[in-house]
Amino acid sequence: RDISLGAAAGAWIEEAVDHFLRSRRIGARDGAAVRWFHAANSKARAGQAARSDVHMIEADVLLRGGKGGNGDPIMAHPPETDSDNTLQEWLEEIVNTNKGIKLDFKRYLKIKIVVYCLHS
User: Fold this and answer.
1) Residue 80: inside a domain, yes or no?
2) CB 58 within 8 Å of CB 41
């Protein structure tokens, strides 16, 4: 089921846990049972996360070039300002997995560009 951007964080977490419970990927309605892969920003780490047995993948999104950047949305965590992985490439890698995602949008990001990528 789609989660609106305005949904409360607690409601989203409940639905994610319920999803993993319904799909029998966890045995009890317990958020602590959900396994995470953090900082899956590079192509290597995104691939590793996609092939792993985790439930959720977390990654960071910012604009290439950092604070003054107006380039593509990339997968990186400050102070990094470049990456071997764009948001579009990352989504293409992860979309056909059975993983949930959490994207951490850094303050330098222009949301308009990201919304375009997510709808593509």
Assistant:
1) yes
2) no
Asked whether residue 97 carries a pLDDT value surpassing 80, the answer given is yes
Provide the domain count of the chain: 1
**What's the angle, vertex CA 116, arms to CA 87 and CA 7, rounded to 5?**
90
pTM above 0.70, yes or no: yes
Q: What percent of the chain has pLDDT over 70?
A: 72
Range of the structural domain that residue 56 is part of: 35-119
Compute the distance between CA of residue 70 and CA of residue 110 in angstroms, rounded to an integer: 8
Distance CA 50, CA 20 (A): 16
Give percent helix, percent strand, percent coil of the chain, each to the nearest 5. Answer: 40, 15, 45
In-domain check, residue 113: yes
How far, in Å, CA of 103 to CA of 99, rounded?
13
77 three-state secondary structure: coil
